[in-house]
Amino acid sequence: MKFGMGQSGPRVEDPRLITGGGRYTDDHVVPNMARSFFLRSPHAHARLKSIDAKAALAMPGVLAIYTGADVAKAGLGNLPCMPIEMFPLKRMDGTPVFHPPRPPISRDRVRHVGDIVAMVVAETVNQAKDAAEAIDVDYDELPSVTDPAAAATPGAPKVWDECPDNISFVQRIGDAAAVDAAFAKAAHVVAYDWRNTRVSQHWMEPRASIGLYDRHDDRYTLISGTQGAHDTRRFLAQYALKIPESRLRVISPDMGGGFGGRSNSYPEMAMVLFAAKALGRPVKWNGERGESFLSDDQGRDTVNKVELALDKDGIFLGLRVRTIATVGAYMSVFGPWPAFANAGGLAGVYRTPAIFTEVLVTVTNTPTIGPYRGAGRPEASFSIEMAIDLAARKLGIDRIELRRKNMIPTGKYPWKTPLTYIYDCGEFEVVLDKAIAKADVAGFAARKRESEKRGKLRGLGVACTIEQSAGGFDEACELRVDSGGSATLLIGTHSHGQGHETVFRQLLSDKLGLEFEEIRIVQGDSDAVPHGHGTFGSRSSGLGGAVIKLASERVIEKAKQIAAHRLEAAADDIEFKDGRFTVAGTDRGVAWKEIAKQAYAPRMLPPGMEAGLAAKAGFTPPAPTFPNGTHFAEVEIDPDTGVIRIDRYTVVDDVGTVMNPLLLKGQIHGGVVQGIGQIMLENLQFDPESGQVLTGSLMDYALPRADDVPNIEVDSHPVPTPTNPLGIKGAGEAGTVGAMPCLHSAILDALAPLGIKWLDMPASPHRVWAAIAAARKKKKAA
Predict the structure, then answer these.
(1) What residue ranges in 142-268 does DSSP mark as E strands?
(2) Cα separations (Å) of 378 from 478, 670, 742?
(3) Which terminal CB of the chain, N or C, has fewer other CB atoms within 10 Å?
(4) Of all residues in the chain, what percent carry a pLDDT higher than 70?
C-alpha cells in the first residue's frame, strides 16, 4: 500500500486498534507486579489531624501504606509548573506569583475532594481497596471555596494561608490607555458577561501507571500514557525524584485520547516509581472513571466581562476583556497556561486597533485546571465572536457583513495585532465566502420559514476564528534505513488518536518511494527516541512533518553519494524519483534497495564514508502558525420542551498544507463535537458550601453522544505558512475553537425573536425552556 501527501489514505493503525491489538497501559503486565490504590479526601478543605494505618497494614495482602509524612521523609520533591518558569508572572502588588507546592501526597492539609491522603500497595486491587477503607483519618474540616470569582472576594475562605486573598497572579496584556481612549470616542458600546463552565476530561482508558525499579542499574521505568515521554521524564526526574534524567525511562504506549490533560505529570506517576523502589517489585495503579472527576486536570472555568467599542459605521475601535480564572488548589505542569497564553486570539481575524485584557487567576478548593483542547483559544474566540453578534443586533447590521467590514484584508501580511500575535498569512474573507456558499446561507430564510410552520425556532450561527499553534518548543526525529531498504522512524511526537502512523508514512512514502509496509513508526519511549516534546497545541503535523522531511532529505543526500560512486557519476548529477536513483539525462540507474544494501558494505562506499544509512533532524519553529476558519451552524429548537437539534454544521478551515484530507476531517469533527459538548451538555459542578463534586459520574455529567451530533461538512482553503518546511498550520484544536462560539451564536439567533439576548452555557433543554417561558411571561405582562 502506498499513499502520498495530500491523499485521503485510510488509517493504517485502525485494524490493529479495533481488533484488540492495541497495547494500552492496562495491557502491560510484568512479573511480580503489586497493585495500588489511593485513599482520597472526602472533604474539599481539611486539616489532617492524624492518620492511623495500623489496622490496614495488618490486613491480608497489604505490602505497604505511604502517607505524606513518608514522602517527605524520603525526600520526594514537589511536582513542577512550567509557565511560572517561562513567564514573569506577578501578583497585584508586583510580588512574584504565588505557586502552591504540590507534593505527591498531601501532608498537613487536603485542599480539594480527591486530594491524595495515602497510597496502599497490596497483592491485589481489592485488597488495596479494603485496606484503604480501614485507614482511620481524623479530619478537621475547614471552609472551602470552589468558584473562581468568589475566591477573590474579601472574606472568602483561604485555600492557602500563604495567599490570604487567594489571588495567585494577574496578567495584563495590551494597551489599556489606548483602549480607554477608544471607548471614550465610541459611538456604540456593547458589553456582556459570560461564564465559561468547567469541564471534565475523559479518555477511553482512564489514567494508569506502572512503576518499575532495577536495583542493579539503579534505574526507574514508568509505563504510562502521556502526551510527551521526554518531558514527563524531565518533570518527574528533576523535580519529584531528584535524579538524573538518564536514570528514568518513560514508555507511553497506546493511549485513547490526550486533549491536553495527559501532558501533566501526576502524583500517581511519582508514587508508583517511589513504591517500586521501596518494595523492590513493580507497582501498578489503574485509575477508575469516578477518580477522573476528582484527580485529573480539568478545563476552562472562567468568569468573563467583554466590552466592544464601535464607531457610528460599525468599525471596531477597541476591545476590553476582564477574566477571572483559577488554577485549582495546585498548579499542574501547564496549569496557568490556558488563562493567558492564548489570549492573543481575542484579536480574531479583525482590524481592531486597540485591545486590552486583564486576567486575574485565583486558587480554589478544586482539582487542578490544565490545558483542554484549545487551552484558552476557544475562550478568546467566544469572547470576540459573541460581542460581534450582540453589536450587530444593537446596530441593526447583518452579522456576517459586520464581520466582513472589520476583517483583515488579504495580502496585508505580516499583520501585527494589538496583543501578542503577528499573522504570517491568511485569506480570511475568501474562507468566509467559501463557507457561506457551502453552508447555503442564502437558503436559510426558507428553512427558517419551514421550521416556523412546524412551530419550531431556527437559528443560524457564525464564527470566524483564528488560533495560535505549533510554536515554542522544538521537535526531533531519527530516520534509520536498514540494509533491506525498509525505514524506521523514531519521533518525539505521540499519537493518541490523530493518525500519525498514517500521515507520517504518507510523508516518508512520498520522500523515499517506500510502501507503507516498509515503514515502521516508533514513538513514546524516551530510551528509543533520542529527543522530542510530544503532541499538544496542534504541533505534530507541522513540526513532526518538518523533521521527517529534513531527515529524509539527509538520508537521500547520502544515498545519492553512494549511487554516484556506484554509477561513476557526479553526485550533483544523480536524481532520485519513485524509489530509483538515475544519472540525469540517461537511463543508467540503480534501485533504492540496492543502495540501502550497499550502504552497509564499507568497501563499496565512497572513501571516508561511514557505513549505514540514517539521519537525525531537529526543527525549532521561528514563529507559531495561525490556523483559521469559518463555521456555520443551524439549530432548531422546540419551544415547548427546550430541546435543541443541530440540523446543519459546516466548516471551511485554513490549516495550511493538508497531509490527509480524510484524517483532517476526523480531527475537525472531533474538535467540533467537544465544542458541542460544552455548549449544550457539559458542566462540572461543585456544591458551593461543602465543595463536593455534584456531577461526579457519567450518569450526571453529560458527554455528547452520536445522536447529539449532526453530519459535519468540512472543506479546506489551504494557505501554506512559511514558518515550517511543509507549510502546515495545524488542525487538532481548530474544531473546538470554532464550534463553541458558532453553536452558541446559532442558539441565541433562534431565541432572539423572543427577546432573549443571552443564555448561559450549557444550553440544556431545561435552561432553554425556562428562558422561553420567562420571555413569554414578560411579553404577556407587557
Answers:
(1) 167-174, 188-200, 208-214, 219-224, 248-251
(2) 35, 14, 10
(3) C
(4) 100
Residues near 429 by beta carbon (within 8 Å), at least 6 away in sequence: 404, 407, 409, 410
- Looking up cell 514522602 gives 71
Q: Find out whether 408 and 423 touch, Cβ atoms under 8 Å.
A: yes
Q: How far apart are CA 552 and CA 489, in angstroms?
A: 10
Domain boundaries, the chain: 475-619
User: Cell 526525529 maps to which residue?
Assistant: 477
Write the DSSP assignment of 634-658 as a string of letters.
EEEE-TTT--EEEEEEEEEEE-BS-
How far, CA to CA in Å, does 281 sit from each of 32, 34, 112, 272, 408? 6, 7, 31, 10, 61
Please name the residues in contact with 9: beta carbons below 8 A apart, sequence gap of 6 or more.
1, 3, 502, 506, 660, 662
Would you state the torsion angle of the CA atoms of residues 772, 775, 776, 780, taken in this order, to the nearest 10 degrees? 170
pLDDT tens column, 655-701: 999 999 999 999 999 999 999 999 999 999 999 999 999 999 999 99
Place of cell 512503576: 211
In the block, which residue shows the cell 528514568? Answer: 248
> Which DSSP string do the residues of 770-781 spell out, in sequence order?
HHHHHHHHHHHH
Question: What DSSP string describes 95-107?
Answer: PBP------SS-S
> For residue 695, which of 363, 362, 373, 289 has the smallest C-alpha distance?
289
Nearest to 463 by CA among 398, 382, 402, 395: 382
The per-residue pLDDT for range 329-339, each reduced to its tens digit, is 999 999 999 99
Q: Please give the mean pLDDT across all residues of the chain.
A: 97
- CA-nearest of 277, 249, 260, 428 to 348 is 428
Q: Where are the beta strands (DSSP E) in 429-566?
A: 457-466, 475-481, 487-491, 519-522
Question: Rounded to the nearest 5 degrees, what angle is found at the Cα of 102, between the Cα atoms of 100 and 104?
Answer: 170
Q: Beta partners for 90? A: 96, 170
pTM of the model: 0.97
Could you tell me which of 712, 729, 562, 574 has the C-alpha nearest to residue 659? 729
- The span from the CA of 62 to the CA of 130, in Å, is 9
State which amino acid sits at residue 660: N
Instruction: Name the one residue in this structure whose C-alpha cell is 534509520.
Output: 480
CA distance 742 to 717: 19
Residue type, 49: K
Spatial distance between the Cα atoms of 659 and 10, rounded to a whole number of angstroms: 12
CB–CB of 302/325 below 8 Å? yes
Environment class of residue 47 by beta-carbon count within 10 Å: exposed (0-12), middle (13-18) or buried (19+)?
middle
d(CA 505, CA 518): 9
Q: What is the pLDDT of residues 233-292, one digit of tens each?
A: 999 999 999 999 999 999 999 999 999 999 999 999 999 999 999 999 999 999 999 999
Strand runs labelled E in 188-297: 188-200, 208-214, 219-224, 248-251, 283-286
Give the residue among 329, 305, 330, 332 at the shortest CA–CA distance from 319.
305
CATH architecture of 475-619: 2-Layer Sandwich (3.30)
- pLDDT score recorded for residue 373: 97
End-to-end CA distance of the chain: 70
**Alpha helices, H only, 33-124:** 54-57, 68-74, 83-86
Residue 488's alpha-carbon distances to 249, 481, 532, 594, in angstroms, are 21, 6, 16, 18
Q: CA 265, CA 77: separation in Å to the nearest integer? A: 13
Candidates 324, 413, 391, 399; CA nearest to 633 is 399
The x, y and z cell numbers of residue 50, run together, are 492524624
Cα–Cα distance between 148 and 198 in angstroms, integer? 11
